Amino acid sequence: MAGETTMPTEAAAEPNAGDKPAKPRPQVPWFRAVLDDQRLIGWSFLIALLCVWEFIVIQAKISPLYLPRPTRVVAVLWQNLMEADLATDLGLTLYRIFAGFLIALVTGVLLGVWMAVSKPVKAMADILIAALYPLPKVTLIPLLVIWLGTGGPFMLTISFMGAFFPIVINTVVGVQQCEPGLILAARDLGANLRQIVLRVLIPSAVPAIFAGIRIGLGISIILVVAAEMVVAKDGLGAKLFVAGQLLDTELVFAVLLVLALLGILITKGQDLIDDRLGLWRTN
Amino acid sequence: MTSPVIDIRFEDVRLAWETRKGPPTVALDRMRCAIPAGKVTAIIGPSGCGKSTMLQLARGFLEPSEGEIRFVDRRSGQSAPRPPMATVWQSFNLFPWLTILDNVAFGLEMSGVPKAERHARAMEALAKVDLRGFESKYPRQLSGGMRQRVGIARALVMKPEILLLDEPFGALDAQTRLVLQEQVAQIVQETGATVILITHSIEEAILLGDTIFVMTARPGRISREIEVALPKPRLLADLKRPEAVALFEEIYDLLKDEVVKAMTGESGAH
User: Contacts of residue B179 in chain A, CB cutoff 8 Å?
Assistant: First the structure.
């Protein structure tokens, strides 16, 4: 910075705001660099756990009826994906989760924004949400079966109910936390109410809405799989339940593995989107 | 741009808020002043005297409890509709999810200007504040001084007849402020718009103002109107001229009393 004394202050302020100047990297031994890689640590730990599991099962001669080896589970999973209809079950479960979730996303954001800008709507919706939100949604399964049967509409409703409440609540919070200065600025620039809602309130609530999506999608997954276990003939939950009844422990583990992988995939995907939302966090 | 012809008149304006207990809070009382078209009026006063409230009233975001704010065509002396206005904010208030270009073009977009035209006009405004090349950045990637220049471009692109500057340099560090003050003095001069500048800084008021209104502590009223006779455009160096120094001391003396009043008033209320 020594040579910049003649430059105006604005230019001098730039480097720390825009592109970071290249920091001289301190010399570290390669094993330190490996140990610092968080992702590597996570995956290595998981693989180590599986190795220990495999080793213990072989050494202690545990029956596969109680605890199958990880390699067997993967083999069974592969076989079921290729030969049996596990892929179809997975597809069905995903469809049930995401169809209901998407409806919840659209209606939840709309109602949330409406609640945040209209006091009477908020008063009415608040009381309903206060009553319904803490209610464990699985307890509604019997009632929904009476009303809707066990087909598509039932599955749609159950996954919708899981995602809807967290999304509504987070949308309301997000909109209400909108920087008042931004609304004033938009009014100053001639925005009408509709434009303020669409161009300021909703965008500024996006990080909060996304937090709601995270929670809501998780609950939708739980509810759909649980509902499948109770009432469905197909889908991952049904597969899991039947495998348990038949004492097919390897298949039980295979389905659990699919669910775990699904969880990782969704969580990592959300992390990726979350990184992009860094845009919103500073002004 | 044709030179502005609309004066703003505050006519016995009172603004008070009801409080749950005790007497209402009076922000402004019997405020009477005329802000002349085409001039820069700097309003200076102690914290909480209602300076920013005056801007909100002029902008129409607040309604006075009593009295009225009139816009008067100085050629005919008749009341006129509210002319186009734009505000530059202390906290910038840029939309963090929009690029610099879209931030500047926001107002044009709201009024339905087609994309190609509004982008062209936004680029023009960005060039005026020396920010060409930053149009695809986001606000968080810019320094405070640059963000405020975006804020200025966003207001200028609306071609306001009245430009409201609400402590525009208040959130900037001292050095950035010095540079930006000079730049803004020049930009403002070029637009020829009527300007209301709210400020805490006596130097800033002298640097930019044609007239300086000194306000009293709450309830806010204008205690003195001072003409700044220094030639324009003014540079920071002009603040060292004897007329400027005398002006500074005059305003400082007026403010000192009011600041003390505001402080004791506050401690009395607690």
Answer: 8-10
ipTM of the complex: 0.88
CATH of residue A216's domain is 1.10.3720.10
> Is the pLDDT reported for residue A16 higher than 50?
no
Q: How far apart are CA B49 and CA B166, in angstroms?
A: 14
B7-29 b/e (C-beta count within 10 Å ≥ 16 → b): bbebeebebbeeeeeeeeebbbb
Residue A140 resides in a domain:
yes
Q: Which of A4, A189, A194, A276 is the best mutation test for B, with the most CBs of B within 10 A? A: A189
φ, ψ dihedrals at B215, nearest 5°: -100, 155
CB-CB under 8 Å, B87 with A191: no
Instruction: Please report the domains of chain B, with CATH numbers, ordered by start residue.
Output: 6-84+161-269 (3.40.50.300), 87-159 (no CATH)
Confirm whether A11 is domain-assigned.
Answer: no
User: Positive or negative CA dihedral for B176, B178, B181, B187?
Assistant: negative
Taking a C-beta distance cutoff of 8 angstroms, is the pair B43, B51 a contact? yes
* Res. A19 pLDDT band, cuts 50 70 90: very low
Structural domain boundaries enclosing A241: 90-277
Domain membership flag for residue A243? yes
Q: How many domains does chain A have?
A: 1
Separation between Cα atoms, residue A208 and residue A35, nearest integer Å: 34
pLDDT tens digits, residue range A199-216? 999 999 998 999 999 899
